[in-house]
């Protein structure tokens, strides 16, 4: 038996490697993704005041600090036993949507689009944003502008583009000023034009990737995410819904604070990334997916006109049942960008969003608080225990990427078995193994933590687990 090792996995956020085991006939026997970073935030935060948690946990990630801040303040609200004023919840919702938009744009334009434009078999030196800037400068500019649209909203309402400071327990620290609202509204038409161009490009070119569509993480699984009271798309202040591969609702209207009744956590000895699972089906049968694809698979509707029009076309892919192929994460991501822009406009035009009262005050009233939001990559849980003085005694975090761990492994194995030939290992085949991970848009620096520099490597092992080939990308 031979082994292939891909280390690092490229064009993702964070560090990981992939191992591919080949049998004596050169066929793929198994393949796995290993997250090679150590995570320490759950222990680091012990002993700190609960009020520091939004700022501390936002440092978990530089890509999606807003998501951590939102889940963190939600947990703190729970500890205080307060519900923030409507204006504050609306401002939080806008900031979170801005985060979704800028992060989805990062994945589509900067990380994934080189595969769509040049093909999965293109030369490695061409599969990057710099080549895109040379050959498709307008598209590259679109990506930068769309990210900037989201980042500027975060800065205007949250205080900083990265690690915002105005999202606090009980609400937010500053009301929405009219000039800020008007400036954001002024920028919405251009952002929507860009999002529609990206969606058109993607859907116009889907026919080129039939083999990838059929084999990139295409399998039955459960899907989980937040929905609002109507069962529609939401990324904040919702309840959990879990559906199966046929679209049957297994669990609905679950308050996130009861997540442990439904979600178990397993660990594997070859990765620092958790493997959460749906408890009633056990481990590993309780595999589920989260993120944009899962969110569209569990909802009744998006709730905004443009997104709902595209959502109807999305549902037709599998005749109204959940879309099972992970290649369509990209499609779902683009629909969510459109939804986010529409939703931001609607919220900002609501006079109640500009009301003066944006914070509720209270002392510690509970010794445990659970916060939950939809991060770009999926459902994000923050669970804090505190003593009567509000000092953190224990922390449990289920990061969005972790929820997809089992599904990513299943996807890597499926793609490796479809494209890897041990007697003729091509770079295009290895790129596809990495690309299925990019469909999930994992944020590994978010789900685990370490110090130092890392590279990407693919190891090929024989039947004795001996490495016969290593492909490294520094």
UniProtKB/TrEMBL annotation:
- Which GO MF terms does the UniProt record name? ferredoxin hydrogenase activity; nickel cation binding
One Pfam family linked to the record: NiFeSe_Hases
Residues bound to Ni(2+) are 61, 64, 443
Name the InterPro entries for this protein.
Answer: Ni-dep_hyd_lsu (IPR001501), Ni-dep_hyd_lsu_Ni_BS (IPR018194), NiFe-Hase_large (IPR029014)
Q: Which UniProt keywords apply?
A: Iron, Magnesium, Metal-binding, Nickel, Oxidoreductase
**Cofactor(s) the record lists:** Fe cation; Ni(2+)
Q: Where does Mg(2+) bind?
A: 42, 397, 449
Output the Gene3D superfamilies linked to this UniProt entry: Cytochrome-c3 Hydrogenase, chain B
Task: Kindly list the positions annotated as binding Fe cation.
Answer: 64, 446
Q: Which residues form a coiled coil?
A: none
The family annotation for this protein states: Belongs to the [NiFe]/[NiFeSe] hydrogenase large subunit family.
- The name of this protein is Ni/Fe hydrogenase subunit alpha
């Amino acid at each position: 038996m031979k082994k292939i090792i891909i280390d690092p996995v490229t064009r993702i956020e964070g560090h990981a490697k992939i191992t591919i085991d080949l049998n004596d006939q050169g066929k793929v026997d198994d393949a796995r993704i290993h997250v090679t970073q150590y995570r320490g935030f759950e222990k680091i935060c012990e002993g700190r005041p609960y009020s520091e948690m939004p700022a501390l946990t936002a440092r978990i990630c530089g890509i999606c600090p807003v998501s951590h801040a939102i889940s963190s303040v939600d947990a703190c609200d729970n500890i205080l036993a307060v519900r923030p004023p409507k204006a504050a919840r609306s401002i939080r919702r806008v900031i979170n949507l801005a985060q979704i938009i800028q992060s989805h744009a990062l994945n589509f334009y900067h990380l994934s689009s080189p595969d769509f434009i040049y093909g999965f078999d293109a030369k490695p030196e061409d599969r990057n944003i710099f080549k895109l800037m040379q050959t498709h400068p307008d598209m590259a500019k679109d990506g930068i502008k769309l990210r900037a649209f989201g980042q500027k909203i975060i800065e205007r309402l949250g205080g900083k583009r990265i690690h915002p400071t105005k999202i606090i327990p009980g609400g937010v620290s500053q009301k929405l000023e009219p000039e800020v609202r008007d400036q954001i509204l002024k920028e919405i038409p251009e952002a929507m034009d860009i999002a529609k161009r990206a969606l058109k490009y993607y859907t116009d070119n889907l026919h080129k990737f039939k083999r990838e569509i059929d084999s990139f993480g295409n399998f039955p699984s459960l899907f989980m995410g937040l929905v609002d009271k109507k069962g529609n798309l939401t990324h904040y202040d919702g309840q959990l819904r879990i559906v199966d591969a046929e679209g049957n609702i297994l669990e609905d209207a679950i308050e996130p604070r009861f997540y442990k009744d439904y979600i178990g956590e397993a660990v594997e000895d070859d990765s620092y990334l958790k493997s959460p699972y749906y408890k009633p089906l056990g481990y590993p049968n309780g595999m589920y997916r989260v993120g944009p694809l899962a969110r569209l698979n569990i909802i009744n509707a998006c709730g905004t006109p443009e997104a709902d029009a595209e959502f109807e076309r999305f549902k037709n892919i599998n005749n109204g049942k959940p879309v099972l192929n992970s290649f369509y994460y990209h499609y779902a991501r683009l629909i969510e960008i459109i939804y986010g822009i529409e939703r931001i406009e609607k919220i900002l035009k609501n006079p109640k969003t500009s009301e003066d009262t944006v914070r509720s005050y209270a002392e510690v009233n509970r010794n445990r608080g659970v916060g939950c939001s939809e991060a770009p990559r999926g459902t994000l849980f923050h669970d804090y225990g505190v003593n009567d003085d509000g000092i953190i005694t224990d922390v449990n975090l289920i990061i969005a990427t972790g929820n997809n761990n089992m599904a990513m492994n299943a996807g890597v194995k499926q793609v490796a078995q479809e494209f890897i030939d041990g007697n003729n290992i091509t770079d295009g085949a290895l790129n596809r193994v990495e690309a299925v991970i990019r469909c999930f848009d994992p944020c590994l620096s978010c789900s685990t933590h370490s110090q130092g520099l890392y590279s990407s490597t693919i190891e090929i092992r024989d039947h004795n687990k001996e490495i016969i080939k290593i492909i490294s990308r520094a």
